[in-house]
């Protein structure tokens, strides 16, 4: 019997019970159907769901509601051990313990006859379909294995430490195995020297003492920057070698020809990329529309390398590409998603060479809005390869030998079309977080030369906007054809994070009033008020941290950051598997010939692909970030005692994290080194506040620090504070009575507060929310 109130509307308890019973599947539509609600009841239902979310009884994600601590129905997990009954136990592969506490335990249910590819053991990584157990004792979740992604390793990477009596020990570089050193016999060192980075096979494991290992490969000294990226590659299980079958397929591939293609070789498309780009997967062209009904409008052509022609579903190339999910970019190397024969040759739109491509032709009105679009499978020939700064210099009156002849026929129409498209973009008002991105430049020997912040040019924005338009057109076309696809989605910030941001802005006397639906305009309004103010970098950072993490999904719930209802990645199939899936779907939808998405691909199967490539994307971001940290720590290791200026980039109970202005390196000032008084952690202000003097060290403060310690392998730096902007220019503060109170503070450290119960993250990492680097390819990787 469904419980309803006197007005025939279901009561709160009945709705919550239904949400709990339908883990991850309950939305407004499902609840209305269950309780026989009519369209007129939908507004009341949405109001009740908002109240339940505000009270913390349920949480809203996308168009579904679930219990506050619910995990997503499909999850990538690591099998970490067994329980007392010998059953496998897993935990989420991506989990931020700082933000969410201890990871939840998942009981693996294994059928008596596992399907091929689902038999698993401790140390494996698997894609799970999970649901709550409903039991108070034991794991709160149970899961069934959809597919084993990675098997447990028998080879590990570490630093060889020589022993006086011969032989040595292996110190693993992976923090997960930091307490599991290996003993290496004298006969098994393969000539490794103390401090060498080596790959070791585990040859014997026993119940007591150290396991034994045998050096398989010497990768060079850890003092060499060229070995640093290998640490991240290994630690994050990034595949480095392609299978022999994939290599054979790549070598056997033939260049595309006119068969089944339109001839666009006379269209003067050009590529605009970073100066060090090795593959060129997109080209652009624009011209004024001569249609008298579209006076002031433009026709924009975006051509993308036709990777689907070479990488067929189910092939060895396809399996390797899906395994990698995306290319990974390090300062000294690239780990590509596809072999170089494909990515840097057949699919690279180099000037003067015929290349296969998928192109979208878009008609923009004088207001910048897209009026229509059409997709074409073409054979093209790039007219020129340009760098961002080179194209911008030509427009700014400094053309060179290459851009001079292109200025009037190609570049000026491109910039005019961008100025037109920008009108619609400004009206749409996407999230305006244009934070600087640092780039490490290496010397010829692989050591760090310097760290630069490339200037953000209109050339960057032009390419970014045209790529966004093409991505939207792809999503719209596939929805029109009712074909499954992988969306690029970005959820709105949670109510909890919006409330925390509001509290923080209140401490700065910055108004932040949320009324109606949450929109990027709300955040843009705050940023616009503070532009040019000392607080601007601080507020930009806090607004960024309030955002969700963009991800891939077979279910569309829109893109909050770009303020778009539908969005799919189409423009980089060389380096992103999601784009390859979209290309295949377009080939199938429009009957373009070979390389189409198979009929067997459904929203369910694509959901699994989306979960996997979302994880590989976060894996790449983490590996890239850790490598940069290690490189800079190595670079600064011989500058112990030197002084630097920086800005507080993080505030925790452990102390202050500082980002150096010179290199962008992050390091910690331990709270115990701040002085003799007690410091309280004020979460709403992102600050540490002295209880005696009221001295406040806050996120965004400019500080002078001294480097005390550098640990290159860990990528860690430790500083001591010399001076702070908060000491020379105190801010207006609330009275001490209005500050957060804490019991029994301890000298030189922040008092511990009662730990909250673990809250699952639903796949949202902590730092770097809402943005991924994209390695300078096309601006934000929303």
TrEMBL record:
GO molecular function, one term: RNA binding
Top EC class for this record: hydrolase
Subcellular location, principal: cytoplasm
Residue span, S1 motif domain: 641-722
Alphabetic keyword roster: Cytoplasm, Exonuclease, Hydrolase, Nuclease, RNA-binding
GO cellular component, one term: cytosol
InterPro entries in the record: CSD2, NA-bd_OB-fold, RNase_II/R, RNase_II/R_CS, RNase_II/RNase_R, RNase_R, RNR_Ribonuclease, S1_domain
Reactions mediated catalytically: Exonucleolytic cleavage in the 3'- to 5'-direction to yield nucleoside 5'-phosphates
Biased composition (Basic residues): 741-782
UniProt EC number: 3.1.13.1
Pfam families attached to this UniProt entry: CSD2, RNB, S1
Sequence segments annotated as region (Disordered): 724-782
GO biological process: mRNA catabolic process
Subcellular location: Cytoplasm
SUPFAM superfamilies in UniProt: Nucleic acid-binding proteins (SSF50249)
Family according to the record: Belongs to the RNR ribonuclease family. RNase R subfamily.
Biological role: 3'-5' exoribonuclease that releases 5'-nucleoside monophosphates and is involved in maturation of structured RNAs.
The name this protein goes by in its record: Ribonuclease R
Native species: Bradyrhizobium frederickii
Gene: rnr
């Amino acid at each position: 019997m469904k419980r309803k109130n006197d007005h025939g509307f279901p009561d709160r308890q009945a709705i919550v019970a239904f949400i709990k019973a339908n883990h991850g599947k309950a939305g407004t539509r499902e609840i209305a159907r269950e309780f026989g609600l009519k369209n007129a009841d939908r507004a009341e239902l949405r109001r009740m769901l908002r109240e339940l979310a505000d009270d913390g009884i349920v949480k809203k994600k996308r168009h579904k509601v679930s219990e506050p601590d619910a995990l997503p129905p499909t999850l990538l997990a690591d099998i970490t051990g067994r329980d007392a009954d010998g059953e496998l136990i897993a935990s989420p592969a991506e989990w931020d313990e700082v933000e969410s506490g201890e990871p939840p335990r998942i009981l693996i249910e294994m059928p008596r006859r596992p399907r091929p590819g689902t038999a698993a053991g401790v140390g494996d990584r698997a894609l799970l379909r999970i649901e709550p157990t409903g039991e108070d004792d034991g794991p709160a979740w149970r899961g069934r294995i959809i597919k084993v992604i990675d098997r447990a390793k028998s080879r590990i990477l570490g630093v060889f430490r020589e022993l006086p009596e011969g032989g040595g020990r292996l110190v693993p570089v992976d923090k997960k195995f930091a307490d599991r050193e290996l003993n290496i016999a004298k006969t098994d060192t393969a000539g490794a020297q103390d401090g060498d980075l080596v790959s070791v096979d585990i040859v014997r494991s026993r119940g007591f003492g150290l396991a034994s290992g045998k050096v398989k490969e010497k990768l060079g000294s850890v003092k060499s920057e060229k070995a640093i990226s290998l640490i991240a590659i290994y630690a994050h299980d990034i595949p480095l070698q392609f299978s022999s079958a994939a290599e054979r397929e790549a070598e056997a591939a033939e260049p595309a020809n006119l068969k089944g293609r339109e001839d666009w070789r006379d269209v003067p498309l050009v590529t605009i990329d970073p100066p060090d780009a090795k593959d060129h997967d997109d080209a652009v062209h624009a011209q004024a529309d001569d249609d008298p009904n579209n006076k002031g409008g433009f026709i924009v052509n975006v051509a993308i390398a036709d990777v689907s022609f070479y990488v067929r579903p189910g092939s060895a190339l396809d399996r390797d590409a899906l395994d990698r999910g995306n290319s990974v970019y390090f300062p000294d190397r690239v780990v590509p998603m596809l072999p170089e024969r494909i990515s840097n040759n057949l699919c690279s739109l180099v000037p003067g060479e015929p290349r296969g491509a998928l192109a979208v032709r878009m008609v923009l009105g004088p207001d910048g809005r897209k009026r229509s679009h059409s997709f074409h499978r073409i054979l093209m020939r790039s007219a020129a390869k340009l760098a961002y700064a080179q194209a911008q210099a030509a427009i700014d009156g400094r053309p060179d030998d290459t851009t001079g002849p292109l200025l009037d026929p190609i570049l000026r129409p491109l910039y005019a079309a961008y100025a037109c498209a920008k009108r619609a973009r400004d009206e749409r008002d996407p999230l305006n977080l244009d934070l600087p991105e640092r780039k490490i430049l290496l010397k010829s020997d692989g050591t760090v030369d310097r760290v630069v912040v490339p200037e953000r040019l209109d050339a960057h924005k032009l390419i970014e906007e045209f790529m966004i338009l093409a991505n939207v057109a792809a999503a719209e076309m596939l929805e029109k054809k009712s074909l499954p696809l992988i969306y690029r989605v970005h959820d709105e910030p949670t109510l909890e994070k919006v409330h925390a941001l509001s509290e923080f802005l209140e401490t700065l006397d910055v108004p932040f009033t949320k009324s109606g639906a949450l929109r990027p305009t709300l955040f843009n309004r705050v940023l616009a008020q503070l532009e040019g103010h000392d607080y601007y970098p601080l507020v930009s950072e806090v607004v960024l941290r309030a955002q969700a993490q963009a991800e891939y999904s077979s279910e569309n719930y829109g893109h909050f950051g770009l303020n778009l209802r539908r969005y799919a990645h189409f423009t980089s199939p060389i380096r992103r598997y999601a784009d390859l899936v979209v290309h295949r779907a377009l080939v199938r939808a429009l009957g373009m010939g070979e390389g189409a998405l198979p009929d067997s691909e459904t929203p369910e199967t694509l959901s699994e692909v989306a979960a996997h490539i979302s994880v590989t994307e976060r894996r790449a971001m983490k590996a890239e970030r850790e490598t940069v940290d290690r490189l800079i720590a190595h670079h600064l290791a011989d500058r112990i005692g030197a002084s630097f200026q920086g800005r507080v980039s993080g505030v925790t109970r452990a102390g202050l994290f500082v980002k150096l202005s010179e290199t962008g390196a992050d390091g910690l000032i331990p709270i115990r080194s701040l002085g003799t008084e007690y410091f309280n952690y004020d979460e709403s202000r992102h600050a540490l506040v002295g209880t005696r003097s009221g001295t406040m060290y806050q996120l965004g403060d400019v500080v002078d620090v001294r480097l005390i310690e550098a640990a290159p392998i860990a990528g860690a730096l430790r500083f001591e504070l010399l001076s702070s902007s908060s000491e020379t220019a105190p801010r207006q503060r609330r009275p001490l009575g209005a500050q957060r109170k804490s019991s029994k503070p301890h000298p030189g450290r922040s008092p511990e507060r009662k730990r909250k119960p673990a809250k699952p993250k639903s796949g949202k990492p902590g730092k770097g929310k809402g943005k991924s680097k994209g390695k300078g390819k096309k601006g934000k990787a929303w």
